[in-house]
Structure formats: structure tokens, C-alpha cells
Specification:
Elements (H helix, E strand, L loop, with lengths): L2 H8 L15 H18 L3 E2 L5 E3 H8 L4 H6 L1 E4 L6 E4 L4 H10 L8 E10 L11 E10 L4 H18 L5 E6 L3 H17 L6 H6 L16 H5 L10 H16 L5 E2 L11 E8 L8 E7 L3 H4 L7 E7 H10 L11 E4 L6 H13 L4 E3 L10 H11 L3 E4 L2 H5 L2 E6 L7 E5 L3 H4 L8
Parallel strand pairs: 1-5, 7-8, 12-13, 12-14
Antiparallel strand pairs: 2-4, 3-4, 5-6, 6-11, 7-9, 9-10, 10-11, 14-15, 15-16
Helix pairs in contact: 2-6, 6-10
This protein binds adenosine-5'-triphosphate and magnesium ion.
Length: about 425
């Protein structure tokens, strides 16, 4: 090997910029959050769906809209080396869910309520709350047209914040109406922005005739005043759209869910119509949207399915966890019931058999691992047991094993009490170790 090659080999490899390792103990919070979500989804009768991370690029171009931040500049796209197929790491999951629902004719016997969790990929400038690989949890209800499903999904998200102990989130609501109504608004919007063309930034000027609604979604502070005074879509809504909107609001009111109406809320994708909403916090700086969603009644058809209405939302897991941390939530410690102390290598086979039975009975137990040469002193093993946070030490000493016993020592209650239990009927005394289940 040349010197240069050696140097190359020794070079440290790091994670891709904007893509994070999620390590213990943080991963404990992730698992806890996922567990809360699963349990809540079950109570609302939403079933889990898992779609591929890689999808055909045209799915997103067709689904999200060509003139959107995601499609214009944020997608990780590549060509399949073998067949030249255009592929993309999913930037969001709604399009994939719709593709799957259409591909498997899932709506043939009625509407479906689905949820997903997983990594999404967007080539954005990494900063707090904004990453290139990030995680979303989303809920989608497909095949339902009524306002009650819009409301159900919002209630579900609201219940999730309560379950997680998140406060300081507020709900913003808007209606984007129907395509016909949007067309009229679009004309008014173009006329308005043309009148103020000198105030538009470069991106807005480019989008003016392609997709003027997107200008309302601008993150440029210099354009906020202009955008605030722009014609409001809500003033262009017809009777049916207004009725749908007021039904959603009445259901939220009846359930004590507070919201404010934000006529500028348009969301980043083209597929939305009627209800759109975002849950926002002021505690995460400019990355304050923790969850966004809305109705997308035309997407299924656009992706090649039989026309069917749908509505959904997606939350950003990193932002939700960041907000929980901001509120002072501590990492839950990984709970361990017992730590197995094994003085001699020769005692391991019997000890391990006992641990297997304990684990089968639901006890969380960590085995002391040796150095490859020996097990280490009793003192060092007890030190490890203490550091592990376990409630009990199990001591598999030669004396105990000779009598088919194991000594259980309380580590946390101050008593230091020791009890010998028989190895013959482990399952009988296993429950005594489950102190903090
Ligand atoms: P933003 O306006 O902050 O860019 P968005 O409108 O692009 O958000 P959506 O596509 O609606 O976001 O995604 C739903 C949620 O996913 C967001 O509300 C946010 O919590 C989260 N999210 C979106 N992009 C990122 C990212 N790059 N890093 C971390 N979380 C993200
Ligand atoms: Mg974005």
C-alpha cells in the first residue's frame, strides 16, 4: 500500500451533512414517542402502512407540483445505474401512500385510515429543526369527503400533543377552496403582484406566472408586508367550500380545539384543496411548524387512481422532540431491572440459563460481560451494576450455584437487602424483580 493510500484509509468517515445519528439515550425518547403514536393511532382506528424510501421521480413531480420548493431544489434524485430509471429518496410520504393505495386498489371496499413513520430526505440548508434526513409521522384518511374526517385528523393531532405533554402549540387553519375558485384568486393575485413587481424577489418574479400561490409561502422577510396585503383566497370561496370550512370549524369548536384562521396559509405542496392547517410553536425559532396537513381531493386521480377524496397531516419528529426538550422534558432513562454479576467464567452457563428464563418472564436484565480473559473483580462488577441503574444485582457466585441458588441484592432502596432464590423455579420469583414496570 502506498503512503497516500494508507492516509486515505485512516481518514475518518463522518455522517453526511444534515443527516444525524440518533444515539442512546436520545433514542429512548424516539422509541417512547413512537410508542405513544402507535397506541394513539390504534385508538383512532388508523392502520400502519410502510412504503419504500425510494420512489420513481415522476411520482413527486406529478404529485407535489413542479413549481414547489421540494421539486425545484430539495430532492435527492439519481438514475438507477442499471436501467437508467429516475429515482428519488422520498421527500415526503403522502405521494408514496397514494401510489400504494392506488397500486393495491385499497379503496375498493371503502375509505382507509393509515399512518406511517420514517425518514424523509430534502436537500435543504441544515440548521436547528431543519435537516437533510429528517423523520415524519403522518396520518392519511383516503376515500372520505366529509368535513368530519378533516376534524378527526386535527383532533388526533391535538390528542397527540396532549399525550406527549406538549403545550405552546397553536393551530392555524385556512381553506384553499376548489381549483375553480383558486383560478379566479390566481388571476387576482397575478394582477396584484404585477402592480408591485418592483417588490418581488427573484424567485417570486419567476413564480409569478407559473404558480403565484407559492409566493404567499415565501420565507423572505422583505416580502411579508406585500404578501400580507395580497388578495385572500378565502374571499373567492363559493358556498360549498365555505360550508365545508364552517363544518370543520364547528366540530373543532365543539371539541374545544382552539385555532386561528390564517388566510396566508397555503402549504408547500400543490396538491391541497379545501382545509389546510399547521400546528405552530414560537419556541423553535423560524422552524416553528411542527405539523402540517390538509385535504388533497385531486391527488389520487393525478397519480392515476380512480378519483377519491383524501386528507392527511405529517409532523416533524425532530421538531416535536426538540420542543419537548425545550419544555424541560428529561430523557427517560432506559430502565433495567437487574444486573447479573458472575464472578467466574465457569459460572456463566448456569447464570445465562437463569437470565434467559427471567427475560422470558419479562425481566429486563443485563449480563456482565468479561474481558475475554476473566470476568473482572467483584468490586468492578458491582460498580458496573450501580452505574447501570438496575434495581437489583443478581449474584451467581460459586457458593450459590452449588446450592442451585442465586442471590438477589437490592441496589436502590437503601436496604441492601439480600435474598436467595432457587434456580429451579425462576418464573415464580421473577415478578419480584419487576420493580418499576
Ligand atoms: P417548512 O416550511 O418548515 O420548510 P414544510 O412546509 O416544508 O416545512 P411539510 O412538507 O409540510 O413541511 O412537512 C411536515 C413537517 O415536517 C413540517 O411541519 C416539519 O415539522 C417537518 N419538516 C419538514 N422539512 C423538514 C426538515 N428539513 N427537517 C426537519 N423537519 C422537517
Ligand atoms: Mg420546507
Amino acid at each position: 500500500m502506498t503512503e497516500k493510500k494508507m492516509a486515505a484509509k485512516a481518514e475518518k468517515l463522518t455522517a453526511v451533512k444534515g443527516m444525524n445519528d440518533i444515539l442512546p439515550p436520545d433514542s429512548v425518547r424516539w422509541e417512547w414517542l413512537e410508542q405513544q403514536v402507535r397506541s394513539l393511532m390504534a385508538r383512532y382506528a388508523y392502520s400502519n402502512i410502510r412504503t419504500p424510501i425510494v420512489e420513481p421521480t415522476p411520482l413527486f413531480i406529478r404529485g407535489l407540483g413542479e413549481v414547489t420548493d421540494i421539486v425545484e431544489k430539495e430532492m435527492y434524485s439519481f438514475e438507477d445505474r442499471l436501467n437508467g430509471e429516475h429515482l428519488t429518496l422520498r421527500p415526503e410520504c403522502t405521494a408514496g401512500v397514494v401510489r400504494a393505495v392506488v397500486e393495491h386498489s385499497m379503496l375498493y371496499d371503502g375509505g382507509k385510515r393509515l399512518y406511517y413513520m420514517g425518514p424523509m430526505f430534502r436537500h435543504e440548508r441544515p440548521q436547528r429543526g431543519r435537516y437533510r434526513q429528517f423523520h415524519q409521522i403522518g396520518a392519511e384518511a383516503l376515500g372520505f369527503a366529509g368535513a368530519e374526517i378533516d376534524a378527526e385528523l386535527i383532533l388526533l393531532a391535538d390528542a397527540l400533543w396532549k399525550t406527549l405533554g406538549l403545550n405552546e402549540v397553536r393551530l392555524e387553519l385556512n381553506s384553499l377552496g376548489q381549483p375553480e375558485e383558486r383560478k379566479q384568486h390566481r388571476a387576482a393575485l397575478i394582477a396584484y403582484f404585477e402592480q408591485h413587481a418592483e417588490q418581488l424577489d427573484e424567485e417570486a418574479r419567476r413564480r409569478l406566472h407559473l404558480n403565484p400561490l407559492r409566493i404567499l409561502d415565501t420565507k423572505n422577510p422583505a416580502m411579508q408586508a406585500l404578501v400580507d396585503a395580497a388578495p385572500k383566497l378565502i374571499d373567492f370561496l363559493g358556498e360549498a367550500s365555505l360550508a365545508h370550512f364552517s363544518q370543520v370549524r364547528a366540530m373543532l369548536d365543539a371539541n374545544g380545539v382552539a385555532y386561528s384562521i390564517n388566510p396566508r396559509l397555503v402549504r408547500g405542496m400543490d396538491y391541497y384543496n379545501l382545509t389546510v392547517f399547521e400546528f405552530i410553536t414560537t419556541r423553535l425559532g423560524s422552524q416553528g411548524t411542527i405539523c402540517g396537513g390538509g385535504r388533497y381531493d385531486y391527488l389520487i386521480e393525478q397519480i392515476g387512481g380512480k378519483p377519491a377524496p383524501a386528507v392527511g397531516w405529517a409532523l416533524g419528529v425532530e421538531r416535536v422532540l426538540e420542543l419537548l426538550k425545550e419544555q424541560g422534558m428529561e430523557n427517560p432513562s432506559p430502565e433495567l431491572d437487574a444486573y447479573a454479576i458472575v464472578p467466574e467464567i465457569g459460572n456463566l452457563p448456569m447464570a445465562m440459563a437463569c437470565l434467559q428464563t427471567l427475560r422470558a418472564a419479562g425481566v429486563r436484565v443485563q449480563m456482565h460481560a468479561g474481558t475475554g480473559e476473566g470476568m473482572g473483580s467483584m468490586k468492578s462488577q458491582f460498580k458496573r451494576a450501580d452505574a447501570s441503574g438496575a434495581s437489583y444485582a443478581l449474584i451467581f457466585g460459586a457458593d450459590e450455584l452449588a446450592q442451585n441458588l442465586v442471590t438477589v441484592k437490592a441496589l436502590r432502596d437503601g436496604s441492601g437487602a439480600q435474598t436467595a432464590y432457587p434456580l429451579a423455579n425462576v418464573a415464580d420469583w421473577a415478578p419480584h424483580l419487576q420493580s418499576r414496570s
